[in-house]
Amino acid sequence: MNSAASPIFVDISSHLAWFTAYAAEKTAQEKGDASPMDLKLQHTLNVLENARRIVEGENFDTYTARLCLLAALYHDVGRFEQYLRYHTFRDRESCNHGQMGVRILKAQGCLNGESPKTRKLVMAAVGMHNRFALPAQTQPLIARITNVVRDADKLDILRIMDEHLSGPAPYNPTVVLQQPDDPTIASEAVLRAVFEHRVAAYAALRCVNDFRLLLGTWFFDLHFATCRRKFLHDGYADNLLRRMPDSVPQAAARDHLLTLLDTAKKDAQITALR
Description:
The chain has twelve helices and no strands. It is mainly α and about 270 residues long. The protein folds into two domains: about 140 residues, Hypothetical protein af1432, CATH 1.10.3210; about 90 residues, no CATH class. Helix 3 packs across helix 6, helix 4 crosses helix 5 and helix 8 packs parallel to helix 9. The longest helix has 27 residues. The two termini are about 15 Å apart. The C terminus is likely disordered.
């Protein structure tokens, strides 16, 4: 995406091996539908690749890049235990998966081979990556690491949601956080967020079409130029928004977002892939 990007060689292969083994172990314990856990494993690998694109595209130093890649790899480690216990990915109805991840990292000791400073920074990012917004007083390096994870996470969630909601199969309630697919309702809070150019909150969702709008508002919360270019180039948000019919109460907000994204593409001289 960025012609000025330089490859950064950071070896976290031992961590990747531990994580994939841990995910396989937890998935094997699920007696029912384990497909959401399989999805989380693939999601993690994609987030790791997105994080690598970011640190290379933004020319991070090697140490900061390592911190970002470790945090990206472990950001959802708590999801597997969360699903085993509660069979949902909705934190409000189960547990804070970021904090669950920190507890797992401490209990498993998988960061013990890293320096105390590295362990502290990575666990801070894992624990905060799922907050609606980072505290204003967050240490700059922790904020940078966490924002890499948050941006990389958003980019792959867009892919997942586009594939899921644009496919022929009925949607999986777990993937859409148990939101009803009701074309007659809308969240006023989500609509306001769109027109005020700010990120909508998960807590404000009332239906799947609200979720589509929320995903589009993520463009307002990307922290790196590399991510903004990829967001526009991938076209997942466009697809999600354009598949909403004109008859839904979210139509005006949808059109507003699409106009903003089209303008951003022109400004960046990017043609969306169709």
